[in-house]
């Protein structure tokens, strides 16, 4: 078991981070135009709505919840020092976990059942969604079966992750955790490793420029040469045809 523990909790994290860094940089430099979610909304919208909306709302909350517990463990423990606040945090996280799971199941069902979406589905899309479903399911299992995870995350997992990033891995506490928790940790590293090869990579290039770019100009029945004139400048006022 020592060899397996060293592989899964020491070697695998570093392999995942190396593949993630090299893979994302290479893909951005060599295949920049694939840095997107490759949306298939054009092919089918209704099922996408009931999958994408709960998934994105849920995963954003869970991601930042884990990130805060990693960056500010003391603040999390201080918040959890009051039983009511601890219960509110745990119940809220569990609800968002269920929301994420429902969204993922709907997205996966849509991907394998909708013929037009299935045509543009790659093997990595299937692998990614299966891994995400398994990861969220394990997270819900951990939250239900091993209560107050936000507190022991700050006490056990945060020091472990810090030891990984400081190149002094300490896995003594990790190897004592229940197997379900260990599988959840391993699943996270696997997802990090395959991100560069999937459409999930689009979260690295969130289009922040949309927040301050001018209104989009939509013009009908104009001369084609004028519409496509590259010298036309943007205006900051709302178009009159909007």
Q: What is the compact description of this entry?
A:
By secondary structure, this protein is an all-alpha fold.
What is the number of E strands? 0
Could you list the spans in which at least 5 consecutive residues all have pLDDT below 50?
Answer: none
Q: In whole angstroms, how far apart are the ends?
A: 65 Å
Quaternary structure: single chain
Which geometry do the CA atoms define? Answer: globular
Name the beta content range: under 5%
Number of contiguous helices: 9
Radius of gyration from the CA trace? Answer: 22 Å
What structural class is derived from the secondary structure elements? mainly alpha
Order of helices and strands: HHHHHHHHH
Summarize model confidence as the mean pLDDT: 84
Largest sheet: none
Share in helix: 55-70%
Structure report:
- The structure is a single chain.
- This protein is mainly alpha-helical.
- The protein has helices spanning 2-30, 46-71, 73-79, 83-113, 115-119, 123-145, 149-165, 179-194, 224-227.
- Helix 1 runs parallel beside helix 8 (179-194), helix 4 runs antiparallel to helix 6 (123-145) and helix 6 runs antiparallel to helix 8.
- The chain is globular, with a radius of gyration of 22 Å.
- It starts with a helix and ends in a 15-residue tail after the last helix.
- The mean pLDDT is 84.
